[in-house]
Design a protein that fits this description.
It contains ten helices and no strands. With 211 residues, the protein is mainly alpha-helical. Helix 1 packs antiparallel against helix 4, helix 2 packs parallel to helix 3 and helix 6 packs antiparallel against helix 9. The longest helix is centred in the first third of the chain and has 25 residues.
Length: 211
Amino acid sequence: MSAVLLTLVMVVVAYFVGSIPSGFLVIKLATGKDIRDYGSGNIGMANAYRVGGAIPALLVLLGDALKGALPVLFARYALGLPDLAVLLVGLAAIIGHDFPIYLRGHGGKGIATSLGVITALAPPVGALAAAVWAVVIAIWRYASLASLLMLTAASLLMLGYERLFLGGRHPLFILFAVALLIAAIYQHRANIDRLRHGRELKLTDKTETAE
């Protein structure tokens, strides 16, 4: 099978893997609730914490991250696809999370899945970016702010990682990380507006119905 055909197959597979709605499934199984009807209405980890608590939220985080990491790892190491193909696979997984076929296109914002992709590409970058997220959450409790700062850090860290450890051979990784940051800013534009006006939900805030 040619590399082009393998890439196309993996892009399709990654989209369907990314479409698996971890947040919806975990919260439905754990509480019987539809996560979309509570808190922010998002199916991501932060809203899973508001609706179901810490353990379901961790399961959602793990599931969403693995959706991004596993297709990328398979494409890169099992199939040996080139960088551009691997990044297309990662992008497909993120798009699947954001616009899942199983929920008629109403998904999350792709943060944990993006982290999974970044970690599969450059494990130290993923680990340090996740640490930035944790620190911001511990101090300010805003998941949206933590997500944006995490991807900002990932872009800067990827630049250093690529130069220091990859010998300048993978410049597409840097562009990819920056593209994920830009996409996250777009996805969080309403959150940014609420942050500016002091109306953003904190991770620990609970509301009975979705905004």
